[in-house]
Amino acid sequence: MNLFGGLVAVDLDNGRGVAVPVLLEIDRTNAGCGADVMCTREPTLGDQQLADCATSIRPQLVTELAQPMGARAPTLSADMLDIWFSVGGKEIWHSSRPSVFKPWGTAAADTNLGVIGANTLHPHVSPDGLTMFLASDRTGTTGGYDIFKTHRNLRTDPWPTPDTVVELVSASDEQSAAIDGLGTTLVMSKQLDMVNGYDLYIAQRATTSDLWTNVTLAAAVSTARDDLNPHITRDGLDLWFAATTPNFGLEIYLSQRASLSQSFPMARRILELSSTSDDRDPWVADGGHTVYFASSRVNNLSQIFVAHR
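Given the sequence above, the corresponding structure tokens read:
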């Protein structure tokens, strides 16, 4: 390992027995070397597949959010200073931090988002931190879970009581709605019947003041098994989700398209995030260098993990 300035040149095992050179940029204000190490890939790496597998830190538990147990579905504002996640399928919890180089503060349930006696799960916040989508089976829903939305004017404002997104309501079970940065593309997980399981559906609208229309199956992405927990990046080009596999339980997948006018193609499994336990609920930062997700790889309990590349 060679240290020069704020950079470390190091060969990392890419998980397939091959050492891959990367540059690690270390924030010197933090004495630790954990989630605050960022990785910049060298342009001379060569094979793109090796570059994709190079990670500066393998997935690690976000220890500040290790309690309570049963944490799932992390979602962050674009500046990564606020995080929300579901706990036990009943509540939405929140934590904040003053800087991406500081630890998360104490998390607590946001009572404005949940309802006593009902399930509330799969939060997804808009990049500006002002709009929240979630799924709930609270009184008034149809077909099990429906998609709800709430909006606030300032990040410091409390969340108003969520309302159903009426144009997305059906007799089916709808969960895990996520939107892109323009607010004109929405991806959700939808179960038409118990035989076919969950598939990914995409809805569109021309402007943020319009209703969602053209709710169509993402045919090339959806598998014969359950497709869950989608996250679409702010540019609308990358679609992350979890799917059940015959041998590994839930695994994280990625589908990438070249332009907004194209459909999402068949997805690939992200091997470096895999474990022998369920791995699900990916949220990916702008640029694709940081991913938060839920995994039960420690003590078989769902907790929040983070990885960088």
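The radius of gyration is 19 Å. Try to locate this feature in the token string yourself.
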